[in-house]
From TrEMBL:
Pfam families listed in its UniProt record: Exo_endo_phos (PF03372)
Gene Ontology MF term list: 3'-5'-RNA exonuclease activity
The protein, known as: Endonuclease/exonuclease/phosphatase domain-containing protein
Segments forming domain Endonuclease/exonuclease/phosphatase: 125-335
Length: 389
């Protein structure tokens, strides 16, 4: 049972259309691949294009809500023993297979099972993330039918941008941008390393919809999913991956001619806690955790991994002038409607984190919620407010 309030009739109808679209294969594999090729892997030098537009108009600052969510791709979700017959196959029972040392089946092998979870996930997004201007997804399965379920239900309100992991991996990262909220000046699908086939999607955005002589602010957004630290080599690889992210972001800034005050936001499943050297590297490069800046003394759980460890590995890091991640009480704004009693929006000089919480709201995040079955991650959402550049 998905947690949260009852979904709207419109959302339900949209989900029905999504099921029909995926079942009839409304979008072929070739069409989706063509869309993806058009949307990603733009060379870094293309960032300079359109970034040099005149900004003589009055700037107005920028405010938006962003949510990050690792979906647990069906190609990685291990199945329980009660499900034993893949589509078109003969089931022998997964427990028996384990006893024989065989590979545990994955959800992607059971068509009806992964479709049901995909529809429930879209329903959850409609009910709990509809106020998000940016949705960053990791482990987004790029199977055409799976993709169609999400796009059919959400494309009315969001534009989709994806980049596939390299090699034989069938998932990737996706960014959903609210229509009319941002202009995408350029984008780059970045391969972080050949080991683990990790990628990042780097986008140069400008807030759109300005009027009365105003112009939207620029921002660099990164959505990524770093390697899981199985061993010491993976930890070295993680550091290489995060360095590639920060180095490329700064290169993009230079190529686009953006001022140093331009906000940079790194989002995703970093597969480490904030005390890890990976996050330490971000800190040394001027990034600060949006969640920690507001809830400095509070640790939450966003992931229960395959080892049974409960961790906070999903992050939103911000680099902007004045964003120093100050401690509670250093500088705060009046409380408006805090999600958690006693917590109020935190001002970091001119940049403020208005809200930061784990979804679904109202459920304690101090430990893993066993009733949340959509994924082995819980979404993290923040509301950020930036001053004029």
């Amino acid at each position: 049972m998905v947690l949260g309030e009852a979904s709207s009739v419109e959302c339900r109808r949209t989900l029905q259309r999504a099921w029909q679209a995926s079942s009839s294969e409304a979008r072929t594999h070739e069409q989706l691949e063509e869309q993806q090729q058009c949307r990603v892997a733009a060379p870094a030098e293309e960032y300079a294009r359109s970034a040099g537009e005149s900004k003589d108009a009055v700037a107005r600052g920028m405010e938006f809500r962003l949510t990050t969510f690792n979906l647990l791709a069906p190609c990685y979700k291990r199945m329980h023993s009660e499900v034993s017959t893949p589509v078109g196959g003969v089931g022998t029972g997964l427990l028996a297979n384990r006893a024989k040392g065989q590979r545990t089946a994955r959800e992607s092998e059971f068509d009806g099972v992964w479709r049901e979870r995909a529809l429930e996930t879209v329903d959850f997004i409609c009910r709990h993330m509809s106020s998000s201007d940016i949705i960053c997804l990791q482990e987004f399965w790029l199977d055409p039918a799976y993709h169609a379920i999400f796009q059919s239900a959400l494309e009315k309100d969001y534009e989709f941008y994806t980049v596939k992991r390299t090699g034989l991996k069938s998932d990737g990262v996706a960014v959903l941008l609210r229509r009319g909220k941002f202009d995408v000046l350029s984008q780059l699908g970045l391969s972080l390393s050949s080991i683990g086939n990790r990628v990042a999607l780097i986008m140069h955005l400008r807030e759109s919809g300005a009027g009365g002589g105003e112009v939207g602010e620029d921002m660099i957004l990164v959505n990524t999913h770093l390697a899981f630290p199985h061993n010491a080599l993976d930890r070295v690889n993680q550091m290489s991956q995060i360095r590639a992210v920060t180095d490329t972001v700064e290169g993009v800034m230079v190529e686009a001619g953006l001022p140093t005050m331009t906000p940079r936001v790194v989002v995703g499943d970093l597969n480490v806690e904030e005390t890890d050297p990976v996050c330490g590297h971000l800190g040394r490069n001027g990034f600060r955790s949006a969640f920690t800046s507001l809830h400095r003394e509070r640790r939450v759980i966003t992931h229960r991994n395959h080892r049974g460890e409960e961790v906070m590995c999903d992050h939103v890091f911000v680099k902007a002038p004045g964003f120093a991640g100050r401690r509670r009480g250093d500088s705060v704004a009046p409380a408006t409607a805090p999600e958690i009693p006693g917590l109020v929006p935190r001002l970091c000089e001119n940049v403020s984190v208005e809200e930061a919480l784990v979804l679904p709201g109202g459920i304690d995040a101090a430990e893993w919620c066993p009733n949340f079955s959509l994924s082995d991650h819980r979404p993290l959402t923040v509301r950020l407010k930036f001053p004029p550049q």
